[in-house]
């Protein structure tokens, strides 16, 4: 039976928890990603440009439909399959995985979880077919971790219209998205609401953030909203407080743990392959004790990460997964991932800093995965409050 990843990476056989049909489908997805997506990845990352041909390729794969089967092929997939799918995407290229995650998890997830049935039927079919691409505009220039209490973007109602003013930063897909989920504070009741803003709306401008050293393919934008008028029909009807917004983020935070696993798996695989092929002092460096020590430490991290994310998905599938458990998974896996990519880069020596050997890209991209969807410190405080009963938030 095909395996969804290099067996040496899944040392304890976690993929065996999938059904035969799921493993077969995942193997087909992996082959497609290797042949159709991977060849685009390095050059796009190097140029810091988005390869728009990837949209058609992801659409052909039916990627958004895996999460929303009612708008895809109608076949529901399990939580565990979805996790392995995320790992495979990130194993190929974290930047393109972020593009897909922002569109599918954050943008479509906002509409699916926070929109009315009429809004879901209006927007999600085209988004599932990737005829329209989504973005998620929450973070602000002066508000990252504290955006819940310090959101400065405002929404003022004027009859059947809302008027949005403010700025957003680090918005993935923001330079070209057709539909942007914008979060703003209602000036009347001080609660956070969500709005779907179409590309080209008067007063909406998006400028690409330049000079990034990580996730260079992702087109992050600085967004300015200057008297942007949005009809009431485009306000997400199920979003009435920041708790509703946080519910969308809670669903995606566990996904970042799988993201981290994908990056770590790829780092380990690249390092292992290099170790058995690179010859120094007359033999492969994989035969030296210090190299084996690095590889085994990486494999230990990867195996522990598998255990965390698989169990989290099992809990979510049973309706028992908590936000605190997702926070711990994110904090733990991204920390272990950071160690793995550093050890892999070390194993490559000087070759580890050039794109030709691929590990340099994963080493850099890991820094972004480590930071977004809640920093390690913020997720630590969420878990700390849960286990002590005391809030340590400033």
TrEMBL record:
Q: Which residues form the Acyl-CoA dehydrogenase/oxidase N-terminal domain?
A: 22-130
Q: Which cofactor does it need?
A: FAD
Which intervals hold domain Acyl-CoA dehydrogenase/oxidase C-terminal?
246-387
Please indicate if the UniProt record lists Flavoprotein as a keyword.
yes
Keywords assigned by UniProt?
FAD, Flavoprotein, Oxidoreductase
**Segment forming the signal sequence:** none
Q: Which domain of life is it from?
A: Bacteria
**InterPro entries, per database record:** ACX4-like, Acyl-CoA_DH_CS, Acyl-CoA_Oxase/DH_mid-dom, Acyl-CoA_Oxase/DH_mid-dom_sf, AcylCo_DH-like_C, AcylCo_DH/oxidase_C, AcylCoA_DH/ox_N, AcylCoA_DH/ox_N_sf
Q: Which residues form the Acyl-CoA oxidase/dehydrogenase middle domain?
A: 135-228
Recorded family membership: Belongs to the acyl-CoA dehydrogenase family.
Q: Would you tell me the protein name for this molecule?
A: Acyl-CoA dehydrogenase family protein
Q: Which organism is it from?
A: Nocardiopsis rhodophaea
């Amino acid at each position: 039976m095909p395996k969804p990843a290099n067996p040496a990476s899944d040392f304890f056989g976690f993929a065996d928890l999938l059904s035969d049909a799921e493993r077969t489908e995942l193997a087909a997805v992996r082959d497609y990603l290797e042949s159709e997506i991977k060849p685009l990845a390095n050059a796009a990352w190097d140029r810091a440009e988005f390869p728009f041909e990837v949209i058609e390729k992801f659409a052909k794969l039916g990627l958004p439909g895996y999460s929303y089967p009612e708008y895809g092929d109608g076949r529901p997939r399990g939580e565990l399959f979805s996790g392995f799918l995320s790992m495979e995407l990130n194993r190929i290229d974290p930047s393109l995985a972020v593009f897909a995650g922002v569109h599918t998890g954050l943008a479509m997830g906002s509409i699916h979880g926070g929109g009315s049935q009429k809004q879901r039927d209006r927007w999600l079919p085209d988004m599932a077919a990737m005829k329209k691409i989504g973005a998620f505009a929450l973070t602000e220039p002066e508000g990252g971790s504290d955006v819940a209490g310090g959101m400065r973007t405002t929404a003022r109602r004027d009859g059947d219209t809302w008027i949005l003013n403010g700025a957003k930063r680090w918005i993935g897909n923001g330079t070209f998205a057709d539909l942007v989920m914008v979060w703003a504070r209602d000036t009347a009741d001080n609660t956070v609401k969500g709005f779907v803003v179409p590309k080209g709306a008067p007063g909406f401008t998006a400028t690409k953030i330049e000079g990034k050293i990580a996730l260079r393919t992702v087109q992050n934008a600085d967004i300015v909203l200057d008297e942007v008028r949005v009809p009431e029909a485009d306000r997400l009807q199920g979003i009435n407080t920041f708790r509703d917004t946080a519910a969308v983020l809670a669903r995606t935070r566990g996904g970042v743990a799988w993201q981290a696993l994908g990056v770590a798996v790829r780092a380990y695989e690249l390092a292992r392959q290099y170790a058995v092929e690179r010859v120094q002092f007359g033999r492969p460096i994989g035969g030296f004790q210090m190299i084996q020590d690095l590889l085994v430490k990486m494999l230990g991290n990867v195996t522990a990460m598998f255990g965390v994310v698989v169990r989290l998905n099992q809990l979510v599938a049973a309706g028992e997964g908590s936000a605190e458990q997702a926070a711990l998974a994110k904090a733990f896996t991204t920390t272990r991932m950071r160690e793995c990519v550093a050890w892999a880069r070390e194993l490559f020596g000087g070759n580890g800093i050039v794109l030709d050997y691929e590990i340099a890209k994963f080493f850099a991209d890991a820094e972004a995965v480590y930071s977004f969807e809640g920093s390690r410190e913020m997720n630590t405080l969420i878990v700390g409050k849960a286990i002590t009963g005391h809030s340590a938030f400033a």
